[in-house]
Amino acid sequence: MYKVEEEKFTFTLPRVTRKRVEEIAQIEVLNDRLRHWTGILLVSSGLGMAAGLCGLAMSMLSLLGFVPRDGGVSILAAIFLVCAFPLLWLAAHCLDKTDKIENEIRHEFCMRYGLEDADR
Asked: pTM for the complete prediction?
């Protein structure tokens, strides 16, 4: 530790070591991965819900007779409904990944400060 003394204040700066830099880098990598998967989660779940709702709305319009059943709206509704399922599957996968990364971040924090990690 380095001590710095000025007129009225005395404070101590932590010594920067290679191990400390590697610990910080590991946490930054985990945070970057968490941001990456969270972004994909938001986009895929938003698009999946929008595609599903548009497909359902178009199907209802076709079913109630507001648009012709043999037209392109029915085909487009089916395409939207088919596209919604893989997007929602991707959202579920991203949710699993973010949960795993959050557990890794908590484990790193507990190891750094000597705490018990009950979930491991």
From this structure: 0.75
CB 34 within 8 A of CB 98: yes
User: If you average pLDDT over every residue of the chain, what do you get?
Assistant: 86
Number of domains the chain is built from: 1
105 closest CA partner among 37, 38, 28 = 28
Asked, for residue 9, whether it belongs to a domain, the answer is no
Closest to 105 in 3D by CA, of 29, 50, 2: 29
- The residue range of the domain holding 92 is 37-114
110 domain-assigned: yes
Query: Rounded distance, CA 70 to CA 112, Å?
Result: 64
Q: What is the pLDDT of residues 96-115, one digit of tens each?
A: 999 999 999 988 888 877 87
